[in-house]
Amino acid sequence: GTLEKIKEEGKLVVGTEASYRPFEYHNAKDEIVGFDIDIAKALSKELGVELEIKDIAFDGLIPSLKTKKFDLVIAAMTITESRKKSVDFSTPYFNAGQVIAVLDSEDQIQNVEDLVGKTVGVQLGTTGDLKVSEIDGLEIKRYEKIPQAFIDLKNGRIDAIVNDLPVTATFVKKVEGVKIVGTPFTEENYGMAIRKDDNELEKRLNEALSNIKEKGIYDKIYAKWFK
Ligand code: ARG
Fold first, then answer.
1. 28, 121, 137, 145: which could join 116 in a potential S-S bond, CB 3.0 to 4.6 Å?
2. DSSP result, 148-186
3. At 45, phi and psi to the nearest 5?
4. Ligand 1, pocket-test mutation among 73, 78, 148, 186, most atoms within 8 A of CB
């Protein structure tokens, strides 16, 4: 199984989409860093192996996991019923919901209903994409990477962005002229995705996750990225 392979090769190969600060992104030195990356490092340490990261498009993560391009996915990925049909998830490790971001000057959009008639940016294949796709009468622009949506919002090409709160909050802190309206309108939990038949790996991962929580490592990583 995959767990034996990880031990034999001495490395855990993780798939992600690294333009999602503070969870996974390229820093100024072009290293992939972030909350998820530190969690992945801590988990591989628990397993006694090295960590290798593969950065691909978000909507390719589950297909590539299935064809064994990597051992698991850590990508701020929400545990959903529909994804659970094709992959398994670890126990939840983070809680986040969708929020709406608009320009400071925008005062018509206060909640999800106000998005009708507007052009809304989302990251392709995310829960934000799915949520917005359920609403009739709006135009959706789907981006490969969420930073591209923020560029378009600033330039007035779209009216709003629907995306995970911690990531949007990070943008709003760094970019002038953009604000979050309202509070999260979904309840979501992030999990690590593994292949359905990898029960041993799933068990070992959940153990490792609870170990890093018990040892206070999880809290340290949390404080580093969300203080
Ligand atoms: N939580 C959302 C989802 O699962 C967005 C995740 C986007 N992650 C990323 N690394 N770009 O659909």
1. 137
2. HHHHHHHTTS-SEEEEEHHHHHHHHHHSTTEEEESS-SS
3. -60, -45
4. 78
What's the CATH number for 98-181?
A: 3.40.190.10
Query: Does CATH number 3.40.190.10 belong to domain 2-94+188-225?
Result: yes
List where CATH 3.40.190.10 sits in the chain: 2-94+188-225, 98-181
Instruction: Find the 124 Cα to ligand 1 centroid distance in Å.
Output: 9
Q: What is the ipTM of this complex?
A: 0.98
Residue from 35, 77, 80 to probe ligand 1 pocket by mutation (most atoms less than 8 Å from CB): 77
| Per-residue confidence in pLDDT tens, the chain, 227 aa | 999 999 999 999 999 999 999 999 999 999 999 999 999 999 999 999 999 999 999 999 999 999 999 999 999 999 999 999 999 999 999 999 999 999 999 999 999 999 999 999 999 999 999 999 999 999 999 999 999 999 999 999 999 999 999 999 999 999 899 999 999 999 999 999 999 999 999 999 999 999 999 999 999 999 999 98
Q: Pick the atom of ligand 1 nearest to 36's CA.
A: 10
CA 146–ligand 1 middle distance (angstroms): 10
Query: For residue 53, with 0-12 CB atoms within 10 Å meaning exposed, 13-18 middle and 19 or more buried, which class applies?
Result: buried
User: Which residues sit with their C-beta closer than 6 Å to ligand 1?
Assistant: 16-17, 20, 24, 58, 75-78, 123, 126-127, 164, 188
